[in-house]
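yo, Trigger factor is done. seq:
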Amino acid sequence: MQVTKEPIDPCQVALTIEVEQDKVVHAVDKAYREYAKYVNVPGFRKGKAPMSFVRQRVPESDVRQRTAELLVESAYGDALKESETDPYAPPKLELLQLDLAGSPFIFKALVPLAPKVELGDYKGLEVEKKIYDISDSDVDEEIERLRERAADYPMAERAVENRDLVVADVSVKLDDQEATEPRPTMIELGADNLPGFDEQILGASVGDTKTFTLAYPADYPQVELQGKDAEFSVTIKEVRTKVVPESNDELAGKITNGRITTLDELKSNIKTDMGRSLSQSSENEADNALVEKIIEKASIQYPPVLVESEIEDEYKFLQQRLAQNGTNVDDYLANIGTSREQLYNQFKDSAEKRIRVGLVLGEIARQEELTLTEPDIDAAIAEAAEQQNTSPAAMRAFLEKNEGFENIRNRAQAKKVLDFIRGSAIIKEKVVKPGQTENPTDEAAAPEAAAATAEGEEVPAPKKKAPRASSKKKESDDQNES
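structure:
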């Protein structure tokens, strides 16, 4: 056997492997003998027909596939030893030559190698941490949001007015297309509706049908509708007025199902909850900033298979979640106005971020010998149990049943590393108002959540298994809403 090793990048090598002709002949013969056990030949029992008859009845493509599998299974392992290559994950295979008549078998294996991380400075880094100053006006703003959410919508025996909730049958006709079937739709006037839509139905009464044409904005979420004219047909079925409750003790009881009985207590709870939430958000923002600085100072290299695996997992998760809701990826993409290419790029960006975070945290854990202990895991389980309002024992049982221990271990390891990094950092506090932050909840668990799914310390490499040869290279609505 001849093996040629060609470096592709720091985390990939290509092995071109040539298997001797006599081994090819033997593998072809073995493949036919395997098929002989199952081929039906008139006049012979299964497995008893002469090989010449068997060869006439087994498709050559099937024999080629099985012969390649038999040869690759042994040749790939031998090639790894001969070339002193330590694979990180199964390879991508490309068959270059396979002649059943008896020429040498040649194939190429693109072998992923372990990630390489060279850390820069990760101790004594300086970051800013926000300290949120929550005022009474901040609490009052939250009270107003709660009042809006607690609004009632009684029937109104009158024409449509601004801020009403209208139930209507809506159909839409685009260009030369057929109009859609009328669909029951709830429309809150004054909300984020298509520009000009509200004005067209103001003053209408139950039973009225309004037909009008509007243009979708150039920045409309559904890309295929941007800038297009649409003819709407709206038949009013119900008119409901919006009644916002007063800011009083009755409101407190209504929005908490009686748990809180006074407005003052509600305000106190809101201020406490806002403080807790914003404090956690502030800590996570600081952690994110620390991790980003560490990543910027580090050299991080990893094989493409890591990203591909993350994208595949994320896509499968999306499919499962959509299937549970009775829809599919195509409908989902149409509703959010995103193409498959855009979705892939989103998945790719988030996968690469998770991998980088996981790898740097894993390398810090290795260098600082931050070994995970049972108390660390117990604390992580207790925290998860508190978040889900259950007991640690119940959470542990759930994790065991659903094979979730790997994820909780990764989170515990990430937390241990983040605690270490934070302990050596220079944290400068800055007092800000709650409005001086962007999407704090989006940042809430970024370092730990990323590390929980990325390849890093405590995250094993994909299992090494026998590769499967292939003869080809592996290749990598709502218009009614107004």
